[in-house]
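Q: How would the structure tokens look for this protein?
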Amino acid sequence: MHDVMYRRIADDLRSQIESGMLAPGAQLPTEGELMADYGTSRNTIREAIKMLVTPGLVETRAGQGTFVVEKPTPFVMTLTGEVLDTGDDTVYLAEVAASGRKPTNSSPQVEIQLAAGAVARALHLEEGAQVVSRHQERFLDDTPWSLQTTFYPMSLVQRGATKLILPTNIDEGAMAYLARECDLKQVGYRDTISVRPPYENEARFFRLPVDGRISVFEIHRLGFDDADNRIRLSITVCPADRNRFRVEVGKVPPRMAAVPAAQADKSSAVPEGPAEANLRRSG
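A: Here is the predicted structure in token form.
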């Protein structure tokens, strides 16, 4: 009887959530109120709530209560396209703005690090070689959307690209700056994408469940100049509940501009592939 009862309660609450009676962000009645409403025990109510927590319909906040999860509207980002001198950030901000949403970035957190592991291998540097790390938190409509860290060989700073080590935005775009300052042009890039559970600091920043049921995409973008030199590695972490990726190959009709966010394409294909995690410390 206990088993049947908590399932019935969970089904009833799920129906209220799906119908909108319990709206996204709404607080569920307290355990005491639910016990009175359904005429059952505290343990039965807790079992019913667990059935809603597991699929991510509700979340329990310590000292506050249980709330209906607010699911963000996914943003669809095109990974393919022309290689622009301005760099990924400028392209990303333009694409987000065209969708009618508000993009913002934190000020860069800049460090000089010793290359190791995935960074050293990707940039073809010796272990311990110096690299510049530029890390930013990115938001859409004030919601945490992605974390991005870009690594540049220190040789670029020695060639005059001193803005790379300043904790300020490069307004013209990093690639345009490198082209002007170092006569160094990015002519192509390679993306490698993996899916993994979020690290603890990422779950905290993105406000994800700590049990890992919402994965993150980790995109490694490696940029090349016309001499096949590896000039930068950008590692971007994006939660799967609010990001989709589009890949276009060949002759494709142009997309309509300024599609409302609520109508974002939720069925776009997501490429898969192996990559090494390197953002355990960021955030």
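The chain has eight helices and eleven strands.

The CA atoms of residues 223 and 229 lie 8 Å apart.

Upvote if useful.
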